[in-house]
Design a protein that fits this description.
The protein is α+β, with helices and mostly antiparallel strands. The chain has 6 helices and 9 strands. The longest helix is centred in the last third of the chain and has 17 residues. Bound molecules: flavin mononucleotide. This is Pyridoxine/pyridoxamine 5'-phosphate oxidase.
Amino acid sequence: MIADLTDLRTWLRGLPSFERDRLPPFDPEDAPADPADLFLTWLRDAVAVGSPAPHAMNLATADAAGAVTARTLILKDLDARGWHFATGSHSPKAAALAQNPNAAMTSFWPALGRQVRLTGIVHDLGEEAGAADFLARPPTSRAAALVGRQSEPLASRQEYWDAYAAALARVEADVDGVLVAPEWRVYALTPHTVEFWAATPDAGQIRLRYRRSADGPSADRAWTKGLIWP
Ligand SMILES: Cc1cc2nc3c(=O)[nH]c(=O)nc-3n(C[C@H](O)[C@H](O)[C@H](O)COP(=O)(O)O)c2cc1C
């Protein structure tokens, strides 16, 4: 067992994180005033090098008791309200956010050696935004969302497929496109901080953190930015 653990540690230590000689340059002196602009530049860079799921982000939430959970989500939009994601309001993450709206999101693009970290407050954008997102989904995704019950115990795969088939039949019968899962929601994380982390070819890293100034409504507050220690 100890020999196995030693092998595991050696193996893990030998795994590469980045191809350092292929990392794109990042000059924090040229960073824009708004972190959303830099995020979108980095997202486009990730798409350009063929990063798988470049719009996937990790979302960490904590419930009222402080219990933390994290999961991967797809970024649906980015505007003055923040970084949007869609999920069911009955899901555990939505329940945690209803108790405690503080959350964090991260993106990681290994081919670029880049990470973005956000901290902030999550807002439910309401029924209309949820319905619009739901109706923009392909029929199979609408059916999956209609099934609901995300993260509840499942007795068998067949039970799920039966529920999914019934939901898909409802979606396919909805020729007018008015059927919406009432609990489907879009949420936006409005950040207090956005940190950009870039690996550099010399085995170092650059970290640039944006912080929202303390006063004014969130969308109007200016950002201050500065380097932080690696
Ligand atoms: C690449 C990827 C994308 C995902 N996108 C979403 C998403 O957009 N919305 C969602 O509710 N779950 C998505 N999931 C599933 C979540 O990671 C998670 O398993 C699920 O939402 C249940 O989370 P919860 O129990 O914390 O509420 C995705 C998973 C992966 C791996």
